[in-house]
Design goal:
single chain, alpha/beta, Nucleotidyltransferase, domain 5, 2 domains, five-stranded mixed beta sheet, 7 helices, 10 strands, globular
């Protein structure tokens, strides 16, 4: 089974190609550039380098969020369009789950990936590997980082934190958890598209017409519009 994975849910742009249990190739960049003009050339380049034609693909896997609203939409839209055009299945995987799998596979404890959500908030969840299978301990959520670490302090094990936004919340984490907190190395903080492909390879396919990103919260513009409508009533 040849699987193409697409992750544009945050600053990291990740494209992966798996052939069964073989990683054919990965493209990863972590720069503040527009995904909308870079993702298709990245897919084309990787597929050409790996000598894979669109018709060779068996499945597409996309990071479904949470993360950047625009970024998540770009990846999901492209993945849905490709899957529909090629008439192959599509699966979505939590962007946080991908981050946890990318750094915590051999960590003996809990893994808390997170993305900064501004104003002291983070998108996060809690995961743990058991027999090489990633298990969800606490569902993905939007929470104040200070509240999250207080919750984690009740856990019975060390916690690995992984994020490209570590520097923004590291002091809060260390102050509450002390030696209980472990921080992923800089080389482990980019979610790997090969992990995304692996996580979604055997996952149930979504309905292309109803599949939508998992934003966790409303986009600010949408929330303001709904608030305005309530005021008018």
């Amino acid at each position: 089974m040849k699987v193409l994975s697409i992750d544009t849910s945050n600053y990291v742009l990740g494209i992966g190609l798996l052939d069964g249990e073989t990683v054919l190739g990965e493209y990863i960049s972590n720069i503040k550039k527009n995904h909308s003009v870079r993702v298709m050339p990245a897919i084309q380049t990787l597929m050409e380098e790996c000598n894979i034609k669109p018709g060779d693909l068996s499945k597409i896997v996309v990071a479904e969020g949470p993360g950047s609203y625009t970024g998540v939409r770009i990846g999901v839209t492209i993945a849905k369009t490709m899957a529909w055009t090629l008439k192959i299945p599509l699966s979505g995987v939590s962007s946080l789950e991908v981050a946890a799998a990318s750094s915590g596979r051999y960590f003996d404890g809990y893994v808390s990936p997170f993305f900064d959500a501004r104003r002291g908030q983070i998108y996060t969840g809690l995961y743990k590997f058991e027999n090489q299978n990633l298990q969800i301990v606490k569902d993905d959520q939007l929470v104040m980082s200070a509240d999250w670490v207080k919750t984690l302090n009740e856990m019975d094990s060390r916690i690995l934190f992984t994020s490209n936004d570590l520097k923004l919340h590291k002091d809060v984490i260390k102050e509450e958890l002390g030696d209980k907190a472990v921080f992923a190395a800089v080389t482990e903080q980019n979610p790997r598209p090969a992990e995304l492909a692996l996580l979604g390879m055997d996952k149930e396919a979504v309905d292309l017409h109803t599949f939508v990103p998992n934003y966790i919260r409303l986009a600010e513009a949408e929330a303001n519009w709904l608030k305005a409508q309530e005021t008018k009533k």
